[in-house]
Specification:
With about 240 residues, the chain is of the alpha+beta class. It is built from seven helices and ten strands. The two termini are about 30 Å apart.
């Protein structure tokens, strides 16, 4: 009989996956630190990046080292934040945010992934008008009307703009500059988000032709696997997994 993957093999795979996530988050912390002050209480972007790192159990020592390194003259490679826009299979609009020390390499990697999956790179502004930058905090509320009501009441009291219930989650929406205050108010109400951050939310989602769904999902996975890519936003209405 064949043997499945060993415990050690699975652990190594999980460690590698976690390492890639940590690398992306450290880059985000670095950019946020250099874009403001090295204090999460005074730098909303840094606070959001630190919260994301803590949510995936990144050790606090790693976070503190990243902030210290980014705020000092350590001679490290200079990172820059770049955004690419384009289209995927089925005409899906894509925004691809990256942190890189070599934009030439990054754009080549992104263009290659798009072209291999029937997509193409667009010009700046070609799809961003279809998205709105906002703060989002998602809470698990599936089948729990009392929890939905609790999230709604706390969000409105915190000054959020809206709450959207979809796919078993209640997503609180707010202005980017209000994200920190809304997040703290919701945490104070005993609500802990599944994920939270400031990003690009599509104004409308578009249906994807059935024959393009698998290709699009593969493209999204390939983009996410690129070391320089931090976030990928799209406006596709994808089928939910059963």
């Amino acid at each position: 009989m064949g043997r499945g993957p060993s415990i050690e093999g699975r652990k190594n795979a999980e460690d590698a996956k976690r390492g890639k996530v940590f690398t992306k988050l450290i880059r985000e912390i670095t950019i946020a630190t250099r874009g403001g002050v090295p204090d999460p209480t005074l730098n909303a972007a840094l606070r959001a990046a630190v919260d994301k790192a803590l949510a995936v159990n990144m050790p606090k020592d790693n976070i503190e080292r990243a902030i210290k390194r980014a705020s000092g003259a350590d001679g490290g490679a200079k990172l820059e934040e770049v955004r690419y826009e384009g289209y995927g299979p089925g005409g899906v609009a894509l925004i691809i945010d990256c942190f890189t020390d070599n934009a030439t390499r990054t754009v080549a990697d992104v263009r290659h992934a798009l072209s291999k999956h029937g997509g193409n790179l667009g010009t700046s502004g070609s799809v961003s008008f279809q998205f709105t930058r906002c703060g989002e905090l998602a809470f698990a509320t599936e089948g729990d009307e009392a929890q939905e009501e609790k999230v709604l009441e706390a969000a409105l009291e915190a000054g959020a703009d809206d709450v959207v219930n979809e796919d078993g989650e209640s997503t609180v929406l707010c202005a980017p500059e209000a994200f920190g205050a809304v997040q703290q108010a919701l945490l104070g109400a005993g609500l802990h988000p599944l994920h939270a951050g400031v990003g690009m939310r599509p104004n409308n989602r578009v249906a994807v032709p059935e024959e393009a769904v698998e290709t699009l999902q593969d493209l999204l996975a390939k983009l996410d696997a690129l070391d320089d890519v931090s976030e990928v936003y799209h406006n596709a209405l994808l089928p939910t997994s059963e």
